[in-house]
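Person: At home tonight, work slowly through the protein below, taking as long as you need, and write a paragraph about the fold.
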Amino acid sequence: MYNVLIAEGNTIESHLLINCIFEEIQDIRLCNIASTGKETLHMIKNQLVDIILLDLKLADNINGLDIIKFISDNSLTKYEHSIIVFSGEPDLLNKITNNPYIFSYTMKSNGFDMLIKDIKNLLNEKEYIKNKGMVVDKIKHQKSINNIKCNITQAYIRMFYNCPEKYLEQYLNLYIGLKKLK
């Protein structure tokens, strides 16, 4: 389940957006709705947010471009490819191309279908990355186990290397004697 923050300056549009999205997509949870840039920044800093649906025109003097700049300037890497921008301002959309934090951007005039498609694609990408990470962790764990086994074997071999024969014989006799006791 992924936490979604909706930052939309228009309250009516944010409620329409919520209804459309949650009717189509079940793998997400609405963590909050922000109508101003100040609220959006506060939520980004203080809440567990996985995906940000961001309108570029918010209800105060902090707009979506400022939000993206804040995220970029503070290197909040958890938001890389996690922001979907939707806006009615084509001139503002031109200012965000090639930003590593933007997964996609669309015009509001394209309707909610395009936005829902973008959200589904983002969820698929996040699942792929999560599953890929689990496989990598499993491989690293297996490599660690193999390294430990190898280190133990090498230590065991070194323990008896250059050991005088009489001590090896005593060790083997003691080892065999212990085995017989069991």
